[in-house]
Structure of Universal stress protein:
Amino acid sequence: MTSEDAEQGNSSARENYQDILVPTDGSNESQQAAERGIEIAAALDATVHALSVVEGSATLKRDQLRVNAEQEAEKSVDQVVDEAERMGVDVVTAVELGIPHETINEYALENDVDMIVMGTHGRTGLDHVLIGSIAERVVRTSPVPVLTVRPSE
């Protein structure tokens, strides 16, 4: 492969991957995945979409626990914004109510996302022994490629 071929390949990737979705729940694992997504976005001159999904429905929104969950979701999105800005990457943010895997996939479709970068594990504990149940569902049903990032030891 010549350097011209490599440059042409990078150019093609830059054109194909302009919007990268980084779902986050604020956990260390999702933050590691966000950092990887931001690195990829920086290399491709792409925009990062930081999304945090609060489980539940709009009818639960008035519940105090839901307000706390929304505040935590905003914090987790802000962490991604801080890292993206540090790396000079454009970032779009969203906090949405819903079923996480469904909301992630809907967001990807509605916002013409080209790739999802997410952790294999999140906050929900034992559900995530091998691969996170949310990550697994996103991988199986996503309309776009998904890169999963395992947590570092």
Remarks:
- The helical segments are 3-16, 28-44, 64-86, 100-110, 133-141.
- Residues 64-86 form the longest helix (23 residues).
